[in-house]
Amino acid sequence: MPDDAALTHVDSGGAARMVDVTAKDVTARRAVAGGRVTTTAEVVGLLRRDGLPKGDALAVARLAGIMGAKRTPDIVPLCHPIALHGVTVELELGESTVDIVVTTRTADRTGVEMEALTAVAAAGLALIDMVKAVDPAAAIEAVRVLRKEGGKTGEWVRPEDRP
C-alpha cells in the first residue's frame, strides 16, 4: 500500500469504523462475482437429474445466494446496508464442477461487490450442504469479483477476464 494511502475503515485511534458515504452521489451500480464448487462427476449427474436425497440442490443454492446478498451487512461487519434492486444467481454445471455467477444491482452511494461475493459464498455453501451426503469432499473455490460498474471508479473488470 502506498505511504500516503489511509485505511478507510480505521479511525485515527486505530478503531474499526464504518465509512461515512453521505457525501457520495447516488448512482446505478452493478457487481458480478463468481466462484466454483468442485465435486464429482457422480454428483453433477445427480444434479442434472434432480436426483439428490435432499431435493433440488440448484434451486436451494439460488435462493441461498439471493438471501445471502440480502443479509450481507449482518455478516460483514463494516458493510453498509443498501437497497438491493436486483440479484441473479446463475449456476452452470461442468463435468465435476458447478460455476456460480452472481449479479447484484442497486442505485446507492456505495457498491454492491460485497453482496455479490456473499451471494456466491452462500450459494456454494448451500450446494455443499445439499451434496455432502454423496460427496463430503465438495469444496468452494475462487470466490472473486469479476466486474463492477458505477460510482466514482466507473467500470472495473478483473484483469484476467479482459478480452
From TrEMBL:
It catalyses: (8S)-3',8-cyclo-7,8-dihydroguanosine 5'-triphosphate = cyclic pyranopterin phosphate + diphosphate. One of its GO terms (molecular function) is cyclic pyranopterin monophosphate synthase activity. Residues 18-151 form the Molybdopterin cofactor biosynthesis C (MoaC) domain. Substrate binds at residues 78-80, 114-115. The active site is at residue 129. InterPro entries: MoaC (IPR023045), MoaC_bact/euk (IPR047594), MoaC_sf (IPR036522), MoCo_biosynth_MoaA/MoaC (IPR050105), Mopterin_CF_biosynth-C_dom (IPR002820). Pathway: Cofactor biosynthesis; molybdopterin biosynthesis. It is an enzyme of class 4 (lyase). CDD domains: MoaC_PE. GO terms for biological process: Mo-molybdopterin cofactor biosynthetic process. Pfam families: MoaC (PF01967). Its EC number is 4.6.1.17. Keywords: Lyase, Molybdenum cofactor biosynthesis. The keyword Lyase applies. Catalyzes the conversion of (8S)-3',8-cyclo-7,8-dihydroguanosine 5'-triphosphate to cyclic pyranopterin monophosphate (cPMP). Homohexamer; trimer of dimers. Belongs to the MoaC family. NCBIfam families: moaC (TIGR00581), PRK09364.1 (NF006870). This is Cyclic pyranopterin monophosphate synthase.
